[in-house]
Protein backbone atom coordinates (compact mmCIF):
# COMPACT_ATOMS: atom_id res chain seq x y z
CA UNK A 1 0.00 0.00 0.00
CA UNK A 2 1.07 3.60 -0.68
CA UNK A 3 0.87 6.54 1.70
CA UNK A 4 -0.78 9.68 0.31
CA UNK A 5 -0.89 13.09 1.99
CA UNK A 6 -4.06 15.00 1.11
CA UNK A 7 -5.26 18.21 2.79
CA UNK A 8 -3.11 17.52 5.82
CA UNK A 9 -4.45 13.99 6.31
CA UNK A 10 -2.65 10.72 5.65
CA UNK A 11 -4.38 8.24 3.34
CA UNK A 12 -3.48 4.63 2.62
CA UNK A 13 -3.93 3.63 -1.01
CA UNK A 14 -3.48 0.43 -2.97
CA UNK A 15 -4.85 -1.80 -5.69
CA UNK A 16 -7.32 -4.45 -4.57
CA UNK A 17 -8.96 -7.49 -6.12
CA UNK A 18 -11.87 -9.36 -4.57
CA UNK A 19 -14.16 -12.11 -5.79
CA UNK A 20 -17.00 -14.06 -4.18
CA UNK A 21 -19.06 -16.92 -5.53
CA UNK A 22 -21.93 -15.67 -3.31
CA UNK A 23 -21.79 -12.24 -1.69
CA UNK A 24 -25.27 -12.49 -0.15
CA UNK A 25 -24.16 -13.77 3.30
CA UNK A 26 -21.85 -10.75 3.70
CA UNK A 27 -24.60 -8.31 2.67
CA UNK A 28 -27.10 -9.93 5.03
CA UNK A 29 -24.54 -9.80 7.85
CA UNK A 30 -24.15 -6.07 7.14
CA UNK A 31 -27.85 -5.61 7.88
CA UNK A 32 -29.29 -5.45 4.36
CA UNK A 33 -32.67 -7.12 3.89
CA UNK A 34 -33.41 -6.32 0.24
CA UNK A 35 -35.75 -8.83 -1.47
CA UNK A 36 -33.74 -11.39 -3.44
CA UNK A 37 -30.77 -11.52 -1.10
CA UNK A 38 -30.12 -15.09 -0.06
CA UNK A 39 -30.77 -16.45 -3.56
CA UNK A 40 -27.03 -16.38 -4.34
CA UNK A 41 -25.26 -13.58 -6.24
CA UNK A 42 -21.64 -13.82 -7.43
CA UNK A 43 -19.61 -10.60 -7.33
CA UNK A 44 -16.13 -9.46 -8.22
CA UNK A 45 -14.26 -6.17 -8.08
CA UNK A 46 -10.88 -4.77 -9.03
CA UNK A 47 -9.80 -1.21 -8.45
CA UNK A 48 -7.95 1.43 -6.44
CA UNK A 49 -8.77 1.58 -2.74
CA UNK A 50 -8.01 4.56 -0.49
CA UNK A 51 -8.66 4.95 3.22
CA UNK A 52 -8.17 7.96 5.48
CA UNK A 53 -9.97 10.66 7.37
CA UNK A 54 -12.73 8.23 8.32
CA UNK A 55 -13.59 7.61 4.66
CA UNK A 56 -12.99 4.69 2.34
CA UNK A 57 -13.14 5.11 -1.44
CA UNK A 58 -12.96 2.59 -4.25
CA UNK A 59 -12.49 3.47 -7.91
CA UNK A 60 -13.49 0.41 -9.94
CA UNK A 61 -11.45 -0.65 -12.94
CA UNK A 62 -13.33 -3.91 -13.47
CA UNK A 63 -16.31 -5.31 -11.58
CA UNK A 64 -19.40 -7.44 -11.94
CA UNK A 65 -22.48 -8.33 -9.90
CA UNK A 66 -24.64 -11.36 -10.69
CA UNK A 67 -22.95 -11.67 -14.07
CA UNK A 68 -23.52 -8.05 -15.16
CA UNK A 69 -20.71 -5.48 -15.51
CA UNK A 70 -20.40 -2.62 -13.01
CA UNK A 71 -18.28 0.52 -13.36
CA UNK A 72 -17.82 3.70 -11.35
CA UNK A 73 -16.71 4.57 -7.84
CA UNK A 74 -18.08 4.39 -4.30
CA UNK A 75 -17.25 6.17 -1.05
CA UNK A 76 -18.08 5.05 2.47
CA UNK A 77 -17.85 7.30 5.53
CA UNK A 78 -17.89 5.73 8.97
CA UNK A 79 -19.00 7.10 12.31
CA UNK A 80 -22.18 7.29 14.37
CA UNK A 81 -24.05 7.61 11.06
CA UNK A 82 -22.48 5.79 8.12
CA UNK A 83 -22.89 7.05 4.56
CA UNK A 84 -22.42 5.24 1.26
CA UNK A 85 -22.24 7.43 -1.84
CA UNK A 86 -20.86 7.33 -5.36
CA UNK A 87 -21.63 6.89 -9.02
CA UNK A 88 -22.28 3.57 -10.77
CA UNK A 89 -22.69 2.56 -14.41
CA UNK A 90 -24.92 -0.51 -14.71
CA UNK A 91 -26.28 -2.62 -17.54
CA UNK A 92 -29.73 -2.71 -15.94
CA UNK A 93 -31.51 -1.53 -12.79
CA UNK A 94 -35.04 -1.88 -11.41
CA UNK A 95 -37.00 1.04 -9.95
CA UNK A 96 -39.26 -1.34 -7.94
CA UNK A 97 -36.16 -2.99 -6.48
CA UNK A 98 -34.65 0.40 -5.55
CA UNK A 99 -37.95 1.29 -3.88
CA UNK A 100 -37.65 -1.94 -1.88
CA UNK A 101 -34.60 -0.48 -0.08
CA UNK A 102 -37.02 1.84 1.68
CA UNK A 103 -40.16 -0.30 1.76
CA UNK A 104 -38.65 -3.69 2.56
CA UNK A 105 -40.54 -5.35 -0.31
CA UNK A 106 -40.89 -4.79 -4.04
CA UNK A 107 -43.99 -2.61 -4.64
CA UNK A 108 -46.42 -4.57 -6.80
CA UNK A 109 -50.09 -5.37 -6.91
CA UNK A 110 -50.92 -9.01 -6.23
CA UNK A 111 -53.85 -10.96 -7.59
CA UNK A 112 -55.82 -10.18 -4.43
CA UNK A 113 -54.77 -6.50 -4.38
CA UNK A 114 -51.92 -4.60 -2.74
CA UNK A 115 -50.13 -6.22 0.15
CA UNK A 116 -51.09 -4.97 3.63
CA UNK A 117 -47.65 -5.80 5.08
CA UNK A 118 -46.04 -2.98 7.06
CA UNK A 119 -43.33 -0.97 5.36
CA UNK A 120 -39.82 -1.22 6.83
CA UNK A 121 -36.49 -0.05 5.50
CA UNK A 122 -34.25 -2.81 4.16
CA UNK A 123 -31.05 -1.13 5.37
CA UNK A 124 -29.80 -0.33 8.89
CA UNK A 125 -31.30 2.90 10.27
CA UNK A 126 -27.86 4.48 10.79
CA UNK A 127 -26.83 4.01 7.13
CA UNK A 128 -27.50 6.70 4.51
CA UNK A 129 -27.32 6.01 0.76
CA UNK A 130 -26.70 8.58 -1.99
CA UNK A 131 -25.80 7.06 -5.36
CA UNK A 132 -25.97 8.33 -8.93
CA UNK A 133 -26.85 5.53 -11.36
CA UNK A 134 -26.44 5.36 -15.12
CA UNK A 135 -28.21 2.34 -16.60
CA UNK A 136 -28.56 0.99 -20.12
CA UNK A 137 -31.96 -0.50 -19.21
CA UNK A 138 -34.39 0.67 -16.49
CA UNK A 139 -37.22 -1.55 -15.26
CA UNK A 140 -40.18 0.70 -14.43
CA UNK A 141 -42.44 -2.11 -13.25
CA UNK A 142 -44.20 -1.93 -16.65
CA UNK A 143 -44.15 -4.33 -19.61
CA UNK A 144 -41.73 -2.04 -21.50
CA UNK A 145 -38.47 -0.87 -19.89
CA UNK A 146 -36.83 2.52 -20.33
CA UNK A 147 -33.28 2.88 -21.61
CA UNK A 148 -30.27 5.18 -21.27
CA UNK A 149 -31.39 6.23 -17.79
CA UNK A 150 -29.71 8.59 -15.34
CA UNK A 151 -31.08 8.75 -11.81
CA UNK A 152 -30.17 9.68 -8.26
CA UNK A 153 -31.01 7.22 -5.49
CA UNK A 154 -31.01 8.28 -1.86
CA UNK A 155 -32.18 6.88 1.45
CA UNK A 156 -31.67 8.58 4.82
CA UNK A 157 -33.63 9.02 8.03
CA UNK A 158 -36.60 7.03 6.80
CA UNK A 159 -36.94 9.08 3.58
CA UNK A 160 -36.48 7.46 0.17
CA UNK A 161 -35.65 9.70 -2.81
CA UNK A 162 -35.63 8.57 -6.44
CA UNK A 163 -34.91 11.30 -8.98
CA UNK A 164 -35.00 10.22 -12.63
CA UNK A 165 -33.14 12.94 -14.52
CA UNK A 166 -33.66 11.41 -17.97
CA UNK A 167 -34.52 8.16 -19.74
CA UNK A 168 -35.67 7.07 -23.19
CA UNK A 169 -39.17 5.57 -23.02
CA UNK A 170 -41.95 4.89 -25.55
CA UNK A 171 -40.23 6.99 -28.18
CA UNK A 172 -39.85 10.01 -25.90
CA UNK A 173 -37.94 11.39 -22.93
CA UNK A 174 -39.06 10.41 -19.45
CA UNK A 175 -38.35 12.36 -16.25
CA UNK A 176 -39.75 11.93 -12.78
CA UNK A 177 -39.24 11.61 -9.06
CA UNK A 178 -40.54 9.66 -6.10
CA UNK A 179 -40.28 10.65 -2.44
CA UNK A 180 -41.46 8.30 0.27
CA UNK A 181 -41.45 9.05 4.00
CA UNK A 182 -41.60 5.80 5.92
CA UNK A 183 -42.58 5.79 9.59
CA UNK A 184 -44.30 3.33 11.94
CA UNK A 185 -44.86 0.81 9.15
CA UNK A 186 -46.64 3.28 6.86
CA UNK A 187 -45.43 5.25 3.85
CA UNK A 188 -46.39 8.66 2.51
CA UNK A 189 -45.56 8.69 -1.19
CA UNK A 190 -45.30 11.57 -3.69
CA UNK A 191 -44.81 10.69 -7.39
CA UNK A 192 -44.13 12.98 -10.33
CA UNK A 193 -43.52 11.99 -13.94
CA UNK A 194 -43.39 13.68 -17.33
CA UNK A 195 -43.05 12.12 -20.79
CA UNK A 196 -42.13 14.37 -23.70
CA UNK A 197 -42.60 13.22 -27.28
CA UNK A 198 -43.69 9.72 -26.31
CA UNK A 199 -45.89 7.46 -28.42
CA UNK A 200 -48.58 6.78 -25.84
CA UNK A 201 -50.89 4.98 -28.28
CA UNK A 202 -48.27 2.28 -28.87
CA UNK A 203 -47.73 1.96 -25.12
CA UNK A 204 -51.46 1.63 -24.34
CA UNK A 205 -51.87 -0.92 -27.12
CA UNK A 206 -49.02 -3.01 -25.73
CA UNK A 207 -50.45 -2.91 -22.19
CA UNK A 208 -53.93 -3.89 -23.37
CA UNK A 209 -52.67 -6.63 -25.66
Biggest pleated sheet: 11 strands, mixed
Order of helices and strands: EEHEEEEHEEEEEEEH
Q: Say how many strands there are.
A: 13
User: What percent of residues adopt helix (DSSP H or I)?
Assistant: 10-25%
Structural class: mainly beta
Number of helices: 3
Q: What form results from the Cα inertia axes?
A: globular
Distance between the termini: 59 Å
Query: Can you give the mean pLDDT?
Result: 85
Report the uncertain regions.
109-114
Beta-strand fraction estimate? over 45%
Radius of gyration, in Å, reads 19 Å
Strand neighbour order, sheet with most strands = 1-2-3-4-5-6-9-10-11-12-13
Question: Mind explaining what this structure looks like?
Answer:
The chain has 209 residues and is mainly β. The protein contains three helices and 13 strands, in the order E-E-H-E-E-E-E-H-E-E-E-E-E-E-E-H. The strands form two sheets. It has an eleven-stranded mixed sheet with strand order 1-2-3-4-5-6-9-10-11-12-13. The protein has a two-stranded antiparallel ribbon with strand order 7-8. The protein has helices at residues 24-29, 95-103, 200-208, and strands spanning 2-6, 9-20, 43-52, 55-65, 68-77, 82-94, 109-110, 113-114, 127-139, 146-156, 159-169, 172-183, 186-196. Helices cover 11% and strands 59% of the residues. The protein starts with a strand and ends with a helix. Strand 9 (127-139) and strand 10 form a beta hairpin.
Layout of helices and strands, plus pairs?
Elements: E1 2-6, E2 9-20, H1 24-29, E3 43-52, E4 55-65, E5 68-77, E6 82-94, H2 95-103, E7 109-110, E8 113-114, E9 127-139, E10 146-156, E11 159-169, E12 172-183, E13 186-196, H3 200-208
Parallel strand pairs: 6-9
Antiparallel strand pairs: 1-2, 2-3, 3-4, 4-5, 5-6, 7-8, 9-10, 10-11, 11-12, 12-13
Amino acid sequence: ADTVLREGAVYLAGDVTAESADIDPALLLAGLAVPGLGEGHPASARGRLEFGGGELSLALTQAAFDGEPVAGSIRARFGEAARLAGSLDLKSVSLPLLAAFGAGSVPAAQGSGWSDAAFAAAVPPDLALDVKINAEALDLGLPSPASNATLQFGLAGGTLNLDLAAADFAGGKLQGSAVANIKDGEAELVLRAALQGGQLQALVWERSG
